[in-house]
Amino acid sequence: METLAQKAAECLARVREKQPLVHNITNFVVMNSTANALLACGASPVMAHAIEEVEQMVSFAGALVLNIGTLTPPWIESMLLAAKKARALGVPAVLDPVGSGATEFRTNSSRRIISEAGVSLVRGNASEVLSLSDNAGQTKGVDSTHSVDEAAQAGRDLALAIATPVAITGAVDLITDGKRTLRVANGHALMTKVTGTGCLATAIIGAFLAVEPDTLEATAAALAYVGLAGERAAAVSSGPGSLQVNLLDALYNISPADLAQGAKIHA
Amino acid sequence: METLAQKAAECLARVREKQPLVHNITNFVVMNSTANALLACGASPVMAHAIEEVEQMVSFAGALVLNIGTLTPPWIESMLLAAKKARALGVPAVLDPVGSGATEFRTNSSRRIISEAGVSLVRGNASEVLSLSDNAGQTKGVDSTHSVDEAAQAGRDLALAIATPVAITGAVDLITDGKRTLRVANGHALMTKVTGTGCLATAIIGAFLAVEPDTLEATAAALAYVGLAGERAAAVSSGPGSLQVNLLDALYNISPADLAQGAKIHA
Amino acid sequence: METLAQKAAECLARVREKQPLVHNITNFVVMNSTANALLACGASPVMAHAIEEVEQMVSFAGALVLNIGTLTPPWIESMLLAAKKARALGVPAVLDPVGSGATEFRTNSSRRIISEAGVSLVRGNASEVLSLSDNAGQTKGVDSTHSVDEAAQAGRDLALAIATPVAITGAVDLITDGKRTLRVANGHALMTKVTGTGCLATAIIGAFLAVEPDTLEATAAALAYVGLAGERAAAVSSGPGSLQVNLLDALYNISPADLAQGAKIHA
């Protein structure tokens, strides 16, 4: 029987082979690092947010990545439009609700995207996922003030309530559709000192969703791949500056065989 | 008696301990490097510019950083709103008037933020500070065409006129409230070949203002810390690309004890 | 008789000496890397897109760089305004039609800038150049799906039709005004795995156009310089992350003599 690590390796091989176009409507902070991560992974990134073109752009895409990190109302309208088109076309879409819980504008915008357009997966940190569930708590800024374990039940409840899988990333990542749950134990603490590693993971999930229909397994595969790259990068880095550089090199150099060996995914 | 270098070390230790949220409304060029510098320093950065959320976001923040590098009118309105809220709540705010003097739009916008909202500190290069004083001169783009010495008297006059401390950065930085003046001799010339090192310094000043009420000493501490990181980074860099990476590593690795030893602050 | 490589070296020496201000209205993804590349090259970059200031800013500039990578209608209006002012003042302008051919909005916006304002040079990949010629083909995202050879005739026809030189970059770059054609064989395949290397080349072309009136030779010089930097960087890089860093170091460290020796420009 195929293991989850072997499945992850197959997903990576398919990304490298198919080079899916990943359409990002994302925040200003991470646009460069996200595009570079997608290229390093083997995908083809495009950033396009104009209401005049998002529907046409997403129609060529293998996946759509929405990230509200530096949101304003026109960007949310573009995200809604793109997500609706993606849904109509069967293009998988992933939402990163950056800072949801910190301001009402972020929480409400995330909820609107989920309820009005719908996505294939929500990927957030523990505080963001808690903010989207009913037992919402206040958070501070965009860094999580809660652990994954604290948010695990809320994540399962949220996934059931919105009928959409949820990934909570942290020291050990949790991916759940409310019934089935996968955990990924790859990663390194120094990654939290580089801005946008969560956003980067969301974009890589997009690339994997473009080539694999099982959302939970594609997401676990992507998170194991990014986490393994972080482990390799941290081993040769002197701080967060070099980690950011080495992370891109590692994403580029990790082979499917490396991922089959290094992925720590368990049910 | 405590030296200024010892004070600087204490400020850094407090940033690492308190991890203040620093709310940035800044330019597109430096958002990534600014966020990474704040993380490397020990602070928690957030970028948020929507008029719908800036007041709520700044209410959790330890400091507000305003930077007009890629300004448009809606961004200036958000900066004014956030700065007024910060003032009402006692949250320190720092303004980086990028390119003031190059265009009337930049000069006027900087003046509006100072006069209509008020900030705790203005940090600019010599040309920018000259443009904000009465004896304003024309500059070219965003790189200074004047030396700190040429702008020293204008800086003191400006600080008195607007009742706000002013920091002029260059080969030797000058921080003044019009009466008391501190100078910081840390730094390296190669830093001028990396975009946004001035903006980065402004953001780090924000983190230090969040933990230290003496504005002049907090600013000198932050500039000594960034300058020392630049010195260390330059010593192991082959050019501006590696400097940018090594600067983040140095910001992360410099300890309070290192700063106590390496800070070159004098009255 | 002076060779094209010697001419390239002279152009680089002049950029280093004159430090031209290069005014960029460019996309969010590459703003940081573009500014850093221009600084490494010896030029002085400024990013300014507000309709309130683009005409004043371009009036000080040695060159204007327009890049539609993350376009919206207000940005296109600013580009048109700046390009018209540049033309009136004799400031050279270069257009990078990122993703032209992928969406109608991009193709139409590129055409409007060319026809309504006019530029000194259009620099694109093969798919983008094909999209602007009459025999337009559909492309996918922002990565070329055609080779330079496939687009060579279309590039010559386009240059004649719009009376503007065209540069098509790829494994071997082609620069043509429809009659005369230069080719540049510098570069490295790993550069395609770093986002914005084409945009970076466009910005460097801007810096070279600021100091050299022969558009074809200035463009070939800039592309040889960037390509040589890519070759040097790739030789010491472990992947696209380190390539991005080493590329900036190489741009900074390549001397005019290095370029005279390494430039592979032929008619």
How far apart are the first and last residues' alpha carbons of chain A, in Å?
14 Å
**Amount of beta strand of chain A:** 5-15%
Considering the protein shown, what is the CATH homologous superfamily of chain A?
Ribokinase
Helical content band of chain A: 40-55%
Oligomer: homotrimer
Number of strands of chain A: 9
Shape of chain A: globular
Largest sheet of chain A: 9 strands, mixed
CATH architecture of chain A: 3-Layer(aba) Sandwich
SSE order of chain A, one letter for each helix or strand: HEHEHEHEHEHHEEEHHHHE
Low-confidence stretches of chain A: none
Q: Which value, in Å, is the CA radius of gyration of chain A?
A: 17 Å
CATH fold name of chain A, please? UDP-N-acetylmuramoyl-L-alanine:D-glutamate ligase
CATH class of chain A: Alpha Beta
Q: Can you count the helices of chain A?
A: 11
**Biggest interface, chains and residue tallies:** A-B, 34 and 32 residues
Provide the spatial order of strands within the biggest beta sheet of chain A: 2-1-3-4-5-6-7-8-9
Any idea how many domains of chain A? 1
Structural class of chain A: alpha/beta
Overall pLDDT of chain A: 96
List the helices and strands and how they pair.
Three copies of one chain form a homotrimer.
Chain A: H1 4-18, E1 21-25, H2 31-41, E2 44-47, H3 54-60, E3 63-67, H4 73-89, E4 93-96, H5 104-117, E5 121-125, H6 126-132, H7 148-162, E6 166-169, E7 173-176, E8 181-184, H8 197-209, H9 215-235, H10 240-253, H11 256-262, E9 265-266
Parallel strand pairs in A: 1-2, 1-3, 3-4, 4-5, 5-6
Antiparallel strand pairs in A: 6-7, 7-8, 8-9
Helix pairs in contact in A: 1-9, 1-11, 2-8, 2-10, 3-4, 4-5, 6-7, 8-9, 9-10
